[in-house]
Amino acid sequence: MASTGSTPFPKWQLAILLGAPLAIGLGYLYMRSRFEDPEKKKVAELKAKTTISLDNEDNAKAAESAIDRAMKLKAAGNRAFHAGEYDKAIELYNDAIEACPSERAVDLATFYQNRSACYEKREMWEQVKEDCTFALKLNEKYVKAYLRRSRAAEKSGDLVLALEDVTSACILERFQVQSSLVNADRILKALGRQHAREALDKRDPVMPSKHFIKTYFSAFSEDPIAKVNVDANETCGFANAKKALEVQDYDSVVKACTEEIDAEGKYKYEALLLRATFYLLLGRHEEAHIDLANVITSDAPTKIRVNALIKRASLFTQLENTEKCLEDFSTAAQLDPDNSDIYHHRGQVYLLLERMDEATSEFAKAVELNPNFSIAYIQKCYADYRHAQLHKNIGALTTVRADFERALELFPRCADAYILYAQVLSDQQEWGRAEALFDAALAVDPNNATLYVHKGLVQLQKSTDFDKAVKLINKAIDMDDKCDFAYETLGTIEVQRGNLRRSLELFEKAIRLAKTELEMTHLFSLKDAAAAQLKVSERWGLDWTVS
Ligand SMILES: *[C@@H]1O[C@H](CO)[C@@H](O)[C@H](O)[C@H]1NC(C)=O
Ligand SMILES: *[C@@H]1O[C@H](CO)[C@@H](O)[C@H](O)[C@H]1NC(C)=O
Ligand SMILES: *[C@@H]1O[C@H](CO)[C@@H](O)[C@H](O)[C@H]1NC(C)=O
Ligand SMILES: *[C@@H]1O[C@H](CO)[C@@H](O)[C@H](O)[C@H]1NC(C)=O
C-alpha cells in the first residue's frame, strides 16, 4: 500500500496527544525526566572520565614544553581561523597536533576538533568527519565533535551517522539544548522519509482495506465519480468500474477504467480520475501523477478537474512539496470557489503544517459551504480547539466545547465526533467525561479497535499506569491484529518505559501495516529515534528501563 493522498485523520494525532510534536520528543521527553535519577550521575561520571594524567615523571618536563608549544600553535590557529584564513589555520593546527604529546589526549582531541572547524568552513565533509572521529577516539564525551560530525554527516547524506551523533550530543547535554533537539528532529524526519521511500519501493502495491477505501471516498462531499449516473444497461469500461466500486471489488477498478480510456469512451475523464485515485490508493505515485495531470490539463468538466487538483495537491503534501500543493489548491479554488472539498482538504494540509490560523479559516469555509458534511464539521471543531489552545483563548475554548456538543447532536452516528471531542476533554484533564465519550463511540462503532487504543491513552495521561494502558491496547490487537495504531502506541509506551528493543519490534509491526507515506515516514522516525538511542545507550552502558 502506500501513499493515499489525504486521509481524514492523519497520524499527527498521537504526537499531539502525548504533547510532543517532535518525533524524537517522545523518547526524549521521558529520558529527560530520568536524568533526575541515578542515571544522571552516570552521565556526569562519563563526562568527568576524560582527564588524563601524566604517568611518566621523567618525561613530564619535556612534555610540558611540548604542550606549551602546541598550545601556542593552537592559539595562532584560532587567530587565523577567526581572520577567515582557513588554510593557514589548518597548517597551524597540523603543527599543534604534531607537537602535542600523545598522552595529552584531551588537548589533542581539541586540536583535531579545531582543524575540523576549518574543514567545515571549506565544506570538506569527509575531512570534517575524519577529524571529529579522531577527536572522539581521544575524548568520547566531546559534545562539540559529535555535533560537528553530525552536521558533516547530514551534509554528505549519511543520515544514520548524523542521527547517532546528534543523539549522543543530546544525551550528553541532558536534552537541555533546544538547538540540538531541533537538529535531531530535522535529521529524523529526513531519515524517516528516506526509509519510508526505500520500504515503499520494495513493497508490492497492496490494496488498502475496504474500510480504508470507503473512508477515503467519504472525505469528498463533491465526488464527481459518485455523482455520475450510468444507465443500468450500459456496458462500457467505466460502467464496469462503477459496478466494481459498488460491490467493493476494488481489484477490478483499474482494469475497467483502462478499457474506458483506451476506447476513448464517453466517460474517459471520469475513468482517468478514478484510475488515478486507485493508483494513489495503491501508492503508485508516478502513474497517479500522469493520470491526474492529464485530467487537469484536459477540457473535462470543472468538478472533475477540481477533484483531480485536490488529489494532486494531497500527493504533493505526501512528497512534502508544499508550494506545489498550495498552488493546486489555489487553482482549484479559482475554478470552483464554492466547492467545500477544496477548503476541507486545504485545511488538513494547514493543520499538518501547524498553520493553525489558516487551518481554522479553511475549515470554517468548508462548513459554511456544506454544513451537513460531518467530517469537515468535526475537523473544524478540532482545528478551532487547537487554535484556541495555541492562543490560550479561554473564551474560544468554551465555544469549541459547545460546537462539539452540537456535533454530537447533529451526527450521533459519527464515531469521529466522539473521539475528537474526547481527545479535547482528556487534554483538559476531564478523564471521566473523555472515557464516557469513548464508551459512547464504542456503542456506535463496536468493532472499532482503535477506540481501545484511545482509551488506553486516556488511562496513560490520567495515571501514567502503563500496565492498565497496555492491557487496553492489547485488547485492540485481540480485536484486530492489523491495528497499526495499537502497535505504534505500544511502541511509544515502550520507549517511555525504556524498553527500546521491544519498541523497535512494535514500530516494525506498525510499519508493515502503514497505509500512507506520511504515516510510514512518521513511524520510521519513531523507530530510527529509538534505534539511535539504543545504540548510544549500549555504547555507554546506560540503562533507561523503569524498574
Ligand atoms: C578550538 O578549540 C577551543 C577549545 O575548545 C575553542 O575555544 C576554540 O574556539 C576552537 N577554535 C575553533 C576555530 O574552533
Ligand atoms: C438503455 O435504457 C434506456 C432506458 O432505460 C434507453 O433509453 C437506452 O436507449 C438504452 N441504451 C442502450 C445502450 O441500450
Ligand atoms: C442539510 O440537511 C438538511 C436536512 O437533511 C437539509 O434540509 C438541508 O437542505 C441540507 N443543507 C445543505 C446545504 O445541503
Ligand atoms: C475507528 O474510528 C476512527 C476514529 O479515530 C476512524 O477514523 C476509523 O475509520 C474507525 N475504524 C473503523 C474500522 O471503523
TrEMBL record:
SMART domains noted in UniProt: HAT, TPR
Molecular-function annotations in GO: mitochondrion targeting sequence binding; protein transmembrane transporter activity
GO cellular component: mitochondrial outer membrane
InterPro entries: HAT (IPR003107), TPR-like_helical_dom_sf (IPR011990), TPR_rpt (IPR019734)
A Pfam family the protein falls into: TPR_8
Keywords per UniProt: Membrane, Mitochondrion, Mitochondrion outer membrane, Repeat, TPR repeat, Transmembrane, Transmembrane helix
Entry's localization field: Mitochondrion outer membrane
Protein's UniProt name: Mitochondrial import receptor subunit TOM70
Organism: Leptidea sinapis
